[in-house]
């Protein structure tokens, strides 16, 4: 085999040889199937209609709302769920509603939240009956993460909720305005810790099930640009009409087009999927919802009260105008198809999924051709399979250690909700415990390394089988994602093609570059998540681990990620010249630690 390789120098290598294993022409031809999908995506981009604005001007009183927000944040600066401050804030809100002449109902339950443990939470719901039983719901959480953590504060949203309620208050002993739809105002608890109250309302309330649309108010008093959040807990998006109408009403009041998450961020949110805002809990139940906020959401303790009051008044008026537009609209519930939003246009989600799924086809053609040629040359695959199996075992060991860390309290546990960016795992990681888990993993790696260490120069045939087996498992992961979670392919597609073209011969820097390009999917996802949360990339990586330990990221996605890491380890060993077949390719391989222990026990 080596003699044949040396004899090929000085002339172009034929496709299918050990030195040039990839049939690149077949891969390029395979991209023909992707072109129609790209055309379908382009043709799916369209503008969306906007509901007309009511002829009546909003009555929202920004000064009164600012006074309410200041009162709440001053009298009860710390409203951590389950604390005495949270209980008093609940009483304050309920009394404020009663002062308006409206009635409210309280829903109290217990929930296990990350960093807080088991706490008692309370939602306060105010219903204004309309001519239709179909509901329009407005939500704002009143809790925060404590006076020292202003990011979780939402005094402005709570104040806006009360000011909106005032518009439907009965004058004296009379009857207040009657909307076309039933209007439901919900002050939720646990919003600063993943939106527990929103999840509770979505699961248990009949009004959530009959809602045509839900508008969430969060951080309206911030100094940043107005923003509309559209991410959900699944591969779903709010109604296009709801998003465009909300954007139009905000732009009319502020003179600024509200920001939406960029297309890469939307793809990452759909791929995980992930939603930090409370609208995500409702979208996870397929109820169309958006969050009106500022970028970034700030607390009622903004250092510039004048600007904050102006922004609160603008967004409060925009919300009232949006509710009037929704109330005057005819028709059923707004649907929740997955979509990709641009500044003034939107692309259909089915076309994006089609592009991602068909994007696997050229890789699959090249992989099948590669495996056929490897088998035709009768190259042994068993040692490469065992090497990859050992790396999968190491990845699963890492996952098991993280699970053990969650059991002993090193990683967060609780309700399957997104963590706040100020969770302990992000800002106060347990260094000692993490080092202990790392030491256990290193011990396992040292044991496995004895069988994976290169004792002699690895032949080109062994490197080829190692790459072929790794790509085969990567292809299985890609196909599984294409069937179950197409958007998750955004994390995998770069590795499919970068590693398929990984040069087994040539300069080391070329292999290193190809390997690094294959890491672009997960690395870009972590960087975009860090920007979205306002954290560092390392904090964002710990945050993702926390999402897995609380169960927000499903177990199937965790297993797929661990298998991908194992493939990356095998490809990385090939890229940096550290790969060797399991046990040097010995057949049969000598028994390992586990088999020796079982024999002794027997």
Your description of this structure?
By secondary structure, this protein is of the alpha/beta class. Helices cover 52% and strands 11% of the residues. A seven-stranded mixed sheet has the order 1-2-4-3-5-7-6, with helices on both faces. Helix 15 runs antiparallel to helix 17 and helix 18 runs antiparallel to helix 23. The chain is elongated. Mean pLDDT is 89; it is low at 1-10 and 297-307.
CATH class of the largest domain: Alpha Beta
Beta content: 5-15%
Count the helices. How many? 24
Structural Rg: 28 Å
Inertia-based shape: elongated
Helix content: 40-55%
How many domain regions? 2
Number of strands: 9
Helix and strand content put the structural class at: alpha/beta
Uncertain runs: 1-10, 297-307
């Amino acid at each position: 085999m080596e003699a044949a390789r040396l004899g090929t120098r000085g002339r172009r290598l034929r496709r299918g040889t050990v030195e040039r294993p990839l049939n690149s022409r077949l891969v390029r031809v395979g991209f023909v199937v992707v072109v129609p999908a790209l055309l379908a995506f382009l043709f799916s981009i369209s503008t969306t209609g906007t509901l007309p604005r009511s002829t009546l001007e909003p009555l929202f009183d920004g000064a009164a709302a600012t006074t309410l927000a200041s009162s709440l944040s001053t009298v009860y600066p710390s409203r951590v769920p389950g604390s005495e401050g949270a209980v008093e804030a609940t009483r304050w809100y309920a009394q404020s509603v009663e002062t308006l002449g409206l009635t409210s109902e309280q829903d109290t339950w217990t929930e296990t939240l990350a960093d807080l443990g088991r706490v008692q939470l309370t939602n306060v719901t105010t219903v204004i009956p309309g001519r239709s039983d179909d509901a329009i719901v407005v939500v704002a959480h009143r809790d925060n993460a404590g006076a020292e953590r202003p990011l979780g504060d939402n005094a402005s949203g709570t104040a806006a909720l009360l000011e909106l309620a005032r518009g439907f208050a009965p004058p004296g002993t009379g009857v207040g305005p009657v909307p076309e739809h039933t209007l439901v105002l919900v002050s939720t608890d646990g919003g600063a810790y993943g939106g527990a109250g929103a999840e509770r309302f979505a699961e248990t309330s009949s009004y959530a099930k009959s809602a045509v649309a839900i508008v969430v108010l969060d951080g309206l008093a911030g100094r940043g640009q107005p923003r509309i959040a559209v991410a959900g807990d699944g591969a779903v998006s709010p109604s296009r009409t709801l998003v465009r109408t909300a954007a139009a009403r905000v732009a009319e009041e502020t003179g600024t087009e509200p920001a939406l998450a960029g297309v890469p961020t939307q793809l990452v949110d759909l791929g995980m999927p992930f939603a930090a805002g409370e609208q995500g809990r409702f979208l996870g139940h397929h109820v169309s919802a958006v969050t009106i906020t500022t970028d970034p959401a700030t607390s009622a303790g903004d250092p510039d009260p004048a600007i904050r009051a102006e922004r609160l008044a603008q967004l409060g008026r925009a919300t009232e105008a949006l509710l009037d537009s929704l109330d005057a609209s005819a028709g059923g519930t707004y649907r929740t198809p997955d979509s990709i939003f641009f500044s003034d246009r939107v692309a259909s989600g089915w076309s994006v999924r089609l592009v991602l799924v068909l994007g696997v086809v050229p890789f699959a053609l090249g992989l099948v051709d590669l495996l056929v040629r490897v088998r035709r040359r009768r190259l042994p695959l068993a040692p490469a399979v065992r090497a990859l199996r050992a790396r999968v075992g190491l990845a699963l060991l890492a996952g098991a250690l993280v699970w053990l860390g969650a059991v002993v309290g090193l990683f967060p546990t609780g309700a399957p909700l997104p963590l706040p960016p100020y969770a302990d795992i992000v800002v106060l990681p347990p260094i000692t415990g993490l080092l202990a888990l790392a030491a256990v993993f290193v011990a396992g790696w040292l044991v496995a390394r004895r069988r994976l260490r290169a004792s002699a120069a690895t032949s080109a045939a062994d490197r080829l089988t190692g790459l072929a087996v790794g790509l085969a498992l990567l292809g299985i992961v890609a196909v599984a994602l294409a069937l179950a979670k197409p958007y998750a392919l955004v994390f995998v597609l770069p590795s499919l093609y970068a590693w398929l073209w990984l040069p087994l011969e040539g300069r080391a820097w070329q292999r290193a570059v190809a390997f690094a390009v294959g890491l672009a999917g997960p690395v870009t996802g972590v960087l975009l998540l860090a920007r979205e949360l306002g954290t560092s990339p390392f904090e964002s990586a710990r945050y993702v681990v926390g999402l897995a330990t609380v169960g927000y990221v499903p177990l199937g996605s965790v297993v797929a990620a661990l298998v991908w890491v194992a493939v990356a380890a095998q490809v990385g060993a090939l890229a940096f010249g550290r790969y060797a077949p399991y046990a040097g390719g010995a057949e049969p391989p000598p028994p390992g630690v586990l088999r020796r222990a079982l024999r002794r026990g027997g």
